[in-house]
Amino acid sequence: MGIINFSRKIELVLSFISALLIASQCGSQYLFSAYSTSIAEKLGFTSVQINTIGSSANYGVFLFTPLFGYLVDHCSSRLIPMIASFTLFTGYFCMAMTYQGYFKSKSVILCALYMFLTGLASSSAYLASLSTIVTNFKSYRGIALGAPVALFGSTAFIFSQINSLVFKGDTYHFLLFVAISTGSIIFMGNDNERVPLLPSEQQRKQQRRNEEPDIGGWELFQDLEAITIGSTKLLMAGVGLMYINNVGTIIKTLYLSTHDDDAKEIQKFQNLHVALISISSCLGRISVGLMSDLAKYNYNVGRIWFLLAACWYIFIGQMLVGFIITDLSKLWIGTILIGFGYGNTFGIITTITSEWFGSKRFGIN
Description:
The chain is an all-alpha fold. It has a single domain (about 1-355), classed as Growth Hormone, Chain: A (Up-down Bundle), CATH 1.20.1250.20. The chain has helices at about 1-25, 35-45, 45-60, 65-75, 80-100, 110-135, 140-165, 170-190, 200-210, 225-255, 265-300, 305-325, 330-355. Helix 1 packs across helix 7, helix 5 packs antiparallel against helix 8 and helix 7 (about 140-165) runs antiparallel to helix 11 (about 265-300). The two termini are about 35 Å apart.
């Protein structure tokens, strides 16, 4: 029995590490502002066209989440990330080939399709990693889920720093690097992902004593709490993504208002703010998991209060950027507030969803 328990713990640890590895590569769509202006200038896209391309990745992430959630709940936990790794590679590889001119067509629709594929792949692999952790960890989910959610938010920071230090504005080779890195790491991380890890008899008895809710599918649309949570996430995600996708254009506009056109300097500022968004989002995601666990178990404070705080962070950040900040040197204040609030929102809603509505249909929820 001792050997079996030890083996189960080893599998649990390896599965958790694999889920973290996959999650760390699934937030690359938030990197778009670091190279969006380069693509627009090279391919001759207008501001509306480049925003459409960038938004396509987010459409891929959010519009098909229920479908991928259903597949994650009913298919092998290893199949989804495996397919996602190839799809993610294909999307970024095709974008790189188009940027460099190896693909003759410079169609906005095709470029949007490539980014849409990256969003689909990121969403499906990320849901698979979260579902693995939710199924295997029944207590202190705030902390357990905070780790992959935080790594998801740190993807853009890691790649933006690599772009600044290694590629220095070489968008073609950078996109190739992102394609190879994200595709290969998700493929390798998929090897040890397991769900569910069968519990021992003692654990099964404990689970029966602490039976969790099981609400999902159409039942969510009849549940007031689910509707409230879903509506809040929709609004906060939309407002946050609006800034994340357009911060590159905002920086260029503010820079050109007081300086001559300097592509390298603009690129530095864009990489900086992508990094700030990523870091603050990462900190927001992991801190809200830790703090909400402490507040719930030590002080009996509901997690919903942390969602309210996240809304205020985003609101204040948007007000500063929209009406007060006119100097590029002060834009970081709004960037950090919006990034932190955005991370808080996704971190706390993920935990609330698993606790309020159960883990059985977590993916589709």
